[in-house]
Specification:
Biosynthetic Threonine Deaminase, domain 3; alpha+beta; 369 residues; 13 helices; 8-stranded antiparallel β-sheet; 2 domains; single chain; 39% helix; Rossmann fold
Length: 369
């Protein structure tokens, strides 16, 4: 760099860069002249929040400045807690715009003086914030851009705030199309609107229907099950909830009816991997017929299926995931004894759902048959 007579401008730990980012605070006050309870800024190296905080505290010191970091990239939070800059050994890369192991020297000094509080959020909360912005504005933020909004929501919930003006700084637009798949998968969990459960039910005809009746009118967002043995079945299920407390109540209700249940809503292995791995070969599932269905995406569609199915036809495979369409794509395996094919065909035709026989599908035979 010296040989080429170039000048290095630090991306965040430079007084001029900090001052330039401080103009965001100027714009906020220009656009909103009324009361502001707090301003939330995403934090990586600290340039943005240092500039905003220095300006806001100079002209409106009553406004709280709150920094937001991801819980696996929290260099500023740890540094402020310890009173010195701390280097993290590793950082998460989902919000890659704020994945910084060591905050700036000057930014740290300014944050010590002007930042009121730091708050941490996880990746699911960021996904939920991305969805919120999209539904309100049809704009898609990158994870770092939604970081401050995720912190704002968490702060408002923790403090029970109402009728307060809170401002979140949205920064960045580095969103890839492939990453949207992860965001859509995790947004409902981050919003605390989906509970992910592992439920063990007896491997007997009718137990699946009993489980569904216990779920009640709640919308099932995902269902994964594969026959394993003749005694018990392990189900991976996602259920839409309206309140985080509903998860514990649902777990208690299922357990009270003799169905052991685990809450997997915060289990990374389950959410990232196991939901795609539930299944396998089931040689004990004799006379299995595998069909692909399109269920109408409305309450009662699954119970209609179960109510019309003969109770002695055991379900040996079931997979469903809500993708936001008008119909749900469902794969079902049923054990239909020889000689009952005609009755089974009548059941399929009277059900009223489009269906396709996949019993000879080579992928099914290779991985599940």
């Amino acid at each position: 760099m010296a040989e080429q007579q170039l000048t290095f401008v630090h991306p965040f730990d430079d007084p001029d860069v900090i001052a330039g980012q401080g103009t965001v605070g100027l714009e906020i006050l220009d656009q909103h002249t009324g009361n502001i309870e707090a301003i939330f800024c995403p934090v990586g190296g600290g340039g943005l929040i240092a500039g905003v905080a220095a300006y806001i505290k100079a002209v409106r010191p009553e406004i709280r400045i709150i920094g937001v970091e991801v819980n696996d990239a929290n260099a500023m939070t740890v540094s402020l807690q310890q009173g010195k800059r701390v280097t993290l050994e590793q950082v998460g890369l989902f919000a890659d715009g704020k994945a910084v192991k060591l905050v700036g020297e000057e930014t740290f000094r300014l944050c010590q003086e002007y930042v009121d509080e730091m708050i941490l959020v996880d990746n699911d909360a960021i996904c939920a914030a991305i969805k919120d912005v999209f539904e309100d504005t049809r704009a898609i933020l990158e994870p770092t851009g939604a970081l401050a909004l995720a912190g704002l929501k968490a702060y408002a919930q923790q403090h029970g705030l109402q009728d307060k003006t809170l401002v979140a700084v949205a920064s960045g637009a580095n969103m890839s199309f492939d990453r949207l798949r992860f965001v859509a998968e995790r947004a409902e969990i981050g919003e605390k609107r989906e509970a992910v459960l592992a439920v063990t039910i007896p491997e007997t005809p009718g137990s699946f229907k009993q489980f569904c009746r216990l779920i009640g009118n709640r919308n099932v967002t995902e269902f994964n099950y594969r026959y394993a043995d003749a005694s018990a079945a392990h189900i991976y299920v996602g259920v839409a909830i309206s309140d985080p407390n509903e998860t514990s109540l649902l777990v208690e209700q299922l357990q009270a009816h003799g169905l052991p249940t685990l809450d997997l809503s915060d289990n990374e292995v389950a959410k990232l991997h196991l939901r795609h791995l539930v299944g396998g070969h089931a040689p004990q599932a004799e006379h299995e017929q595998v069909y692909r269905f399109e269920f109408p995406e409305k309450p009662g569609a699954l119970m209609n299926f179960l109510d019309n199915m003969r109770h002695d036809w055991n379900i040996s495979l079931f997979h469903y995931r809500n993708h936001g369409a008008d119909f749900g794509r469902v794969l079902v395996g049923m054990q239909v004894p020889p000689g009952e094919e005609a009755a089974f065909g009548e059941f399929l035709n009277t059900l009223g759902y489009p269906y396709w026989n996949e019993s000879d599908n080579p992928a099914y035979k290779l991985f599940l048959g």
